[in-house]
Specification:
Blueprint: H1 2-15, E1 20-23, H2 26-33, E2 48-52, E3 58-62, E4 77-81, H3 93-97, E5 103-105, H4 112-121, E6 127-128, H5 130-138, H6 142-161
Parallel strand pairs: 1-5, 3-4, 5-6
Antiparallel strand pairs: 1-2, 2-3
């Protein structure tokens, strides 16, 4: 399921001439990778998914959380960072960002700390991925529909029990 979701994103990126997608929202990270970390932005510890339309996808995550990445995650490469060592999560971004021209972010979901750093790196303002991702996520696969149905059944059983 996650691989299909990531492939849909890449297809849409090609259609819209997006070279690199920068994803930091917890829900979208899970949707495209199957990964949800432990502390994430509640403690200013970002996980960042970088999806290139033509190259490998890279997940940048805290070393503490890397064992939570599913073995079958469709991400091509995982890079870790450690609190207080070097430039932490900021270290890899310039190398990757500088290889791409048309960069898009989740304008209304990106953490201000990550956005501020990206603004320092980018000469042009990045585009907004929000509508593109929302459109991808709006159409549910049979697997997603079954999960939603099961969640509804569980919720109903809990209500009846209460």
């Amino acid at each position: 399921m996650f691989k299909n979701n990531l492939n849909k994103l890449r297809e849409k990126m090609k259609e819209h001439n997006i070279d690199l997608a920068v994803i930091t929202d917890d829900d979208n990270l899970y949707y495209f990778t199957g990964y949800h970390d432990f502390l994430h932005m509640d403690f200013n510890r970002p996980t960042i998914l970088l999806v290139s339309k033509d190259d490998e996808s890279i997940l940048i995550t805290p070393l503490l959380d890397v064992l939570l990445v599913p073995k079958d995650s469709p991400v091509d490469k995982i890079e870790t960072w450690n609190d207080g060592i070097g430039n932490e999560w900021r270290e890899l971004l310039p190398q990757i960002i500088n290889q791409h021209k048309n960069i898009f972010i989740e304008k209304f979901k990106i953490n201000p700390m990550v956005k501020s750093y990206l603004d320092e790196l980018l000469q042009d303002h990045p585009g907004d991925l929000t509508k593109l991702i929302d459109n991808i996520r709006m159409i549910k696969s049979n697997h997603e529909l079954n999960i939603a149905r099961h969640a509804g059944e569980v919720g109903m059983a809990m209500m009846e029990a209460a």
